[in-house]
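Hi W.,

Here's what went into the run:
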Amino acid sequence: MSTPQPLLILTPDDLLAERWQALSASPIRAVDLGGLATWRKAGHRLAVIDLGGYPPPAPAPWTQDAWRNNAADLAILATSSRPDDEEGLAVLNAGACGYCHSHAPIETLRQALDVVASGELWVGRALLSRLLRLVDSRLPRAGLTEWAHPLTDREREVAHHAALGESNIAIADALGITERTVKAHLKAVFEKLQVTDRLQLALRVHGVR
Amino acid sequence: MSTPQPLLILTPDDLLAERWQALSASPIRAVDLGGLATWRKAGHRLAVIDLGGYPPPAPAPWTQDAWRNNAADLAILATSSRPDDEEGLAVLNAGACGYCHSHAPIETLRQALDVVASGELWVGRALLSRLLRLVDSRLPRAGLTEWAHPLTDREREVAHHAALGESNIAIADALGITERTVKAHLKAVFEKLQVTDRLQLALRVHGVR
DNA sequence: ACGCAACCTGTCCTTGTGGACAATAGCGAC
DNA sequence: GTCGCTATTGTCCACAAGGACAGGTTGCGT
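Here's what came out:
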């Protein structure tokens, strides 16, 4: 079975394009990034893009305006004929929803497409395990829980709840204390973490920026 | 269609087990990690494990011998009723092939199972985007913008500013409009994204939970 | 015994936020 | 030309949040 959604196939490589026809019941072919805009305006959102088909001197596709302006609304599966971890990170950070080998088995591609079509991200085993290793070794837990260090146990609990968007009353009920007490703890948390409100706290806790 | 492969369902939660029956044509239920060894010895390799069903005082499942001795040969999809980035990293590093919400839609679970069954890894959008951020901290705002879909251009701008913790006045100044207008846009954003306030918006935008 | 830190609670007050009513103007589609 | 969407701005109001004063009780180390 192939994806029922219309699919934009973007590659200058005719052989690749032919192979990928099988991925969707209604595939459309384009050869340059300009096709992205019209695809989005037509109300579609699924696209598979071959990154490896362009000569090296050309700027990386994901840095071009045509990509940046449309990646937000599209579910893009980027592929490369010579996958590279750095490239993978770059395209994913640029808004792609998946990254895999251009000549991966058609079944694998289909699965990857299903995943990105459903709104999730698809990252190959190699890149993903490298990500895990990087996070596990280079920051063995530093960046993730660094915020909790200066806090007391209770403050940590309150901060965690607040960072998930719960109201003071909700937190109070959850912890079996008064709203006033929650406020007291939060005041201490804001002070210690040098933030002004619960939204900044949430950003800090969840490692944004 | 459900996975043709036999599936080991490992949870003390009866309701969960019943829900998960639909994931495989031949599911087998077990309630503790001891089931992993016999499952592997029987030549099977697919298992879904609920991490959240055990009381907190118990040692984490992935630290127990039954897990460590069998994870290498099995394709394990770990689930939690309260997913947590720390926990996710821990189980993936312990050899699990996937991590997602215990009560995720059955289609999502099925997809995750398909992916791990095929030898790949499955990591949810929230955790994965955070991994990407951690590894490549220099990304300014890229990526993961599925949330922007139903929004107009202006709403997107306002939402983006709000998700970074800016006040309505600050957003108004930044965009050269009135605070009232910012409110109007935000009202539409909240409506379209089905959130109640700017903190929930921030969590959505930054891929938390 | 004393200090101190963690934890808990109380009352005011100011401000930001979000919702409930509005209205006006532009611009593309039918 | 009308319909609908977008962008813009207005006022009024209820409420949560956070700061500014308070206070209180534990328990632990010196």
